[in-house]
Amino acid sequence: MAVESLIASALLLAVGAAIGFVPTLLIERSKQRHALQTRWDVPLFELCKQFVGAARQLVHLARHLDRAPDPTGHALRVDQAHSELRALFEQVRLLGSGRLQEAARLVVHHAYAVRAVAEGQPDERAKDYPGTTPQARIKNAITEFLAAARDQLGVAAPDDVLGDAVLEDEPWRSKWFAQPTGTAEQKVS
Question: Where are the bilayer-spanning segments (predicted)?
């Protein structure tokens, strides 16, 4: 009888240990996955923020190239902004998913066209993208980059990125707010 109770006690002890061990193991693995994900999220967020900022800076500088009081100095700033964008792209290649890398590549690709046109060169990529301007192409590329970054960062609804009408000097519109229908004259009558 003593042996049986000893075996039963040992069995109950083992079952109790397993019941306590399995949830602890699962929680620890979950914590490790979260810590690993978080470790890359912050640098990726910062990198994406810098990349988009550099792209916008290049577009801004290129658009004002013909109005610069100091054309030589302004051209140098355009060159520096373009160089920074390309360097940040290399960092995106290190941390980014395939979708994010491809989106970043298109931003760099279209940034060159924006710069070339601003410098008075022909749009060499016009035949590859008929009916679009370099400004429209980079606007779309930046929007896709933001969606890809949001996707990799785990943001809910990553493709819900507000369009950027500013790059094309269009009136601001949003798909999230109702748009007026008709003109003022149509509403009055």
Answer: 6-27
Buried b (16+ CB within 10 A) or exposed e, 35-48: eeeeeeeeebeebb
Domain-by-domain residue ranges, the chain? 25-170
- Cα 15 to the chain's mean position, in Å? 49
pTM of the complete model: 0.70
* Of 136, 141, 128, 186, the residue nearest 166 (C-alpha): 136
Classify the phi-psi angles of 119: left when phi > 0, otherwise alpha if psi is within -120 to 50, otherwise beta: alpha
Indicate if the alpha-carbon torsion angle 180, 185, 188, 189 is positive or negative: negative
